[in-house]
Amino acid sequence: MESETGAINKALGEMTVLVTGGSRGIGAAIAERFASVGMNVVIHYMKSHEEANEVARRCMKYAGSVMTVTADLRNKEQILRMREKLENHGLKPDILVNNAGISHFGLLADVSEEEWDDVMAVNVKGTFLCTQAFLPYMISQRYGRIINVSSIWGLSGASCEVLYSSTKGAVNAFTKALAKEAAPSGVTVNAVAPGAVDTAMLEHLDAGELAGLREEIPAGRLAKPDEISSLVYFLALPESGYINGQIISPNGGWVT
Asked: Which domain covers residue 65, as residue numbers?
């Protein structure tokens, strides 16, 4: 039953969260954050089987159930099979965190059509297909939380990251539009657009480049994955139901 605040009478420990790209970095931190309150956690991965299992082992020390699933998010059939597998285990996500994504660094002139299509397929199409697959259940129970992990570059753009910036800008627009569409059904849709986070996504930078990056950020440091996961968790709470259609950027004051 839905309350006046848009929340349902469902304890956090009874809820299920699906985290795409949950085998490492921000995704792994998000999975562990939800597991720490006893939620049922589904960790999606594509190829990183051992890494996903390690995240699952860390999550298993808490009370909720933990499951790993694999799917190529560019492929609708694989996403539907993933949904079927979850349903066979009695799991229907109340919360979907679209975190899976790949980066690309290089001049626009050097981007091939294949590279453009691939990054778009993972970052944008994957978000679309996963949301389309799991949104109907949220609408049917008149409650749900969708959090899309975007990027600061989707807000400001980045030189030599035109392709990546374009995908995250698309995710931001997707977020705003779907929030309006899903709001009457009790589903909120928000995006978290982190600044520079200390993960493997920055591994293409050398020590000098990382030092220069830190100097650009007023906080003087990179974010930790746990700082991003805490914001994602907050947006997923029942009491956050009036926050909708927002692109929130934890970036240390880098872009305001």
From this structure: 12-241
Q: Among residues 45, 143, 164, 233, which one is catalytic? A: 164
Rounded distance between C-alpha atoms, residue 29 and residue 255, angstroms: 24
Give how many domains the chain has, as a whole number. 1
Q: Is 164 considered catalytic here?
A: yes
Q: Which CATH number belongs to the domain containing residue 230 in this structure?
A: 3.40.50.720
Q: Which residues are paired to 97 by β-bridges?
A: 19, 147
Distance CA 139, CA 152 (A): 30
Distance set, CA 95 to CA 2, 205, 210 (Å): 16, 33, 34
Instruction: For residue 7, tell me if it sits in a domain.
Output: no
**Six token digits for residue 214:** 């830190």
Output the pTM of the full model.
0.94
| pLDDT tier for residue 1 given thresholds of 50, 70 and 90 | very low
CB 46 within 8 A of CB 70: yes
163-200 per-position pLDDT tens digit: 999 999 999 999 999 999 999 999 999 999 999 998 87
- Whether 232 contacts 197, CB under 8 Å: no
